[in-house]
Design brief:
The chain is α/β, with parallel strands linked by helices. Helix content is 35%, strand content 14%. The chain is globular and about 85 Å long. This is Iron hydrogenase small subunit domain-containing protein.
């Protein structure tokens, strides 16, 4: 299994590699008495402390939880390459087995409602590898999780992403108006960036990528107020499942077990954040995250091949789907990038709300109707500007896409306030960035290339065919990402795009579940906050093993 690992600031790279700065495994309790000892490793890999008198003590295996990773500043992003035992398909198997046992023993009160929510990027990755359509994959996953394994519901996080897009767009407009009305002040720049104190701080930075959030919290606390307070689609689905669905079926949050299938290992860290933990019921909004690769592994563990699986028809509940001409629900697509389409939707929403300009999806894609697109130094960096007909040389909105840590670091440097101010308070006026909004993702090529996605078949390349095997491998990787991207876009190309405001179910939920779009409950369920992780003085690289 390949984890996304972590990066060291001194060895920054576009790809996240394992960090040696993790200090948790080397915390040793010192005895008050001085004694020399040695470490012995037996044939089974067990570690023993051998004292001078010949006595031996077996040492415990270091165990690191996801909470440890979040609380430790030794790494910039996640450190899942160490001994993590939770958040795997085994946890799901255990819950399903416990349900089966409870049913057999006639203990219905002990049966937990199991909900699986699937990311569209994961569907696309499986579709690309097995030459299926995302719709075919979704139908087979419905059968696999519900009929074969015994889950009760299977949902689509493209549905909860509509909440995320709407909330992000509204927050951006509020910030933009405050910023340009000169209402923001220095007391709006606290590192505790709750929605109420976001003020007019620009640029607003996307919040859907947990690797990027972890990086910001552990290395650049001054940037936290710039980050969109909206929860990611995964966590909004968690709120929807535990709070709304649980209430509808008469189950408290701890009696609903929510699993999400994600393209990224860092989503496991996101689900483990304390902000998404219900102290009253001792449960998380998302109980377990399994990656696309782990789902493929589950197929093998169950002795199944995806081509041989049966299919179930698409369900409309919490799924981005509309009825086809035959009356059967079919998946519908979303606009913009395969990382969620945040830039596209927020730019169109802001253009209409702030300037009365109606932009189509084609305007954003092709750079028309006042939209100007400027390519960056690489494919993962692009700028989008909107100019009004009255002054086509002066952009009124300036957005950007930045994927991969190299691009992120360069943008962070531009946002870094120029004036020397305190660690805990900086003013938006000192920021040097000219952007209004940036769609940021930690992985090169974005979520479609997440660390938990299926990878290109290495046998598909022929290194002996050319003088540079690494070039051949790079080409194969790019081709594979393009194939997964095409699979992701297949839904929109086939069934069309459904805009968030056109999703009638979202409107119903705003009224029935949240009491409106700007209520206290809407803020509680759809928004979050970020906190700086204090630096540790321990240098993991200096530890003697």
């Amino acid at each position: 299994m390949t984890f996304s690992g972590a990066v060291l600031l001194t060895d920054l790279n576009d790809f996240i590699t394992p960090s040696q700065a993790c200090i948790k495994p080397v915390e040793v309790k010192r005895s008050s008495e001085k004694s020399d000892s040695q470490i012995r490793v037996d044939d089974t890999g067990g570690y023993y402390e051998v004292m001078q008198d010949g006595g031996e003590t077996k040492l415990e295996t270091a165990s690191i939880s996801l909470n440890d990773c979040l609380a430790c500043s030794g790494c910039i992003t996640s450190a899942e390459s160490v001994l993590i035992t939770l958040q795997s398909q085994k946890e799901l198997y255990d819950v399903l087995l416990a349900n089966k046992t409870a049913i057999e023993e006639r203990r219905p009160a002990d049966v937990r409602t199991v909900v699986v929510s699937i990311a569209p990027q994961s569907r696309a990755s499986i579709a690309a590898k097995y030459d299926l359509t995302p719709l075919d994959v979704h139908k087979r996953l419905l059968w696999f999780f519900k009929q074969h394994l015994g889950a009760h519901h299977v949902f689509d996080t493209a549905f909860s992403r509509d909440f995320s897009l709407l909330e992000s767009a509204r927050e951006f407009v509020r910030r933009y108006q405050l910023h340009h009305d000169n209402i923001n002040s220095s007391n709006a720049m606290e590192s505790d960036s709750s929605p109420s104190n976001a003020g007019g701080i620009l640029p607003m930075l996307a919040s859907a990528c947990p690797g990027w959030i972890c990086y910001a919290e552990k290395t650049h606390d001054y940037i936290l107020p710039y980050i969109d307070s909206t929860k990611s689609p995964q966590q909004i689905m968690g709120s929807l499942v535990k709070d709304y669905l649980g209430g509808k079926i008469g189950q408290p949050p701890n009696k609903v077990y929510h699993v999400s299938v994600m393209p990224c290992y860092d989503k496991k860290l996101e689900a483990s954040r304390q902000d998404f933990y219900n102290d009253l019921y001792a449960t998380r909004d998302v109980d377990c995250v399994i990656t696309t690769g782990e789902v493929e592994k589950m197929f093998g563990e169950q002795g199944l091949a995806i081509h041989d699986m049966q299919s179930l028809e698409v369900e409309s509940l919490f799924t981005k789907a509309v009825a086809s001409s035959y009356g059967i629900p079919a998946l519908v697509g979303t606009e913009g990038s395969s990382s969620g389409g945040y830039l596209s939707y927020i730019l169109r929403y802001a253009a209409h709300t702030l300037f009365g300009v109606h932009l189509t999806l084609e305007d954003i894609e092709n750079g028309t109707n006042g939209v100007q697109i400027k390519a960056g130094r690489n494919n993962d960096l692009r700028e989008y500007s909107l100019c009004l007909p009255s002054d086509p040389s002066k952009p009124v909105l300036k957005f950007a896409i930045a994927y991969g840590f190299r691009n992120i670091q360069n943008l962070v440097r531009k946002i870094n306030p120029a004036a020397p101010v305190t660690r805990r308070r900086r003013t938006a006026a000192t920021a040097t960035s000219t952007y209004d909004y940036i769609e940021i993702m930690a992985c090169p090529s974005g979520c479609i290339n997440g660390g938990g996605q299926l990878k290109a078949d290495p046998t598909s390349t022929n290194p002996s065919a050319g003088p540079a095997p690494e070039k051949s491998s790079l080409t194969a990787s790019r081709n594979w990402i393009a194939k997964a991207e095409d699979a992701y876009r297949w839904v929109a190309d086939t069934s069309g795009v459904q805009l968030p405001e056109s999703n009638a179910a979202i409107g119903v939920l705003y009224n029935e579940w949240l009491g409106g779009p700007d209520t206290e409950k809407a803020t509680q369920m759809l928004h979050t906050q970020y906190r700086a992780v204090e630096k540790s003085d321990v240098n993991g690289l200096a530890v003697k093993w």
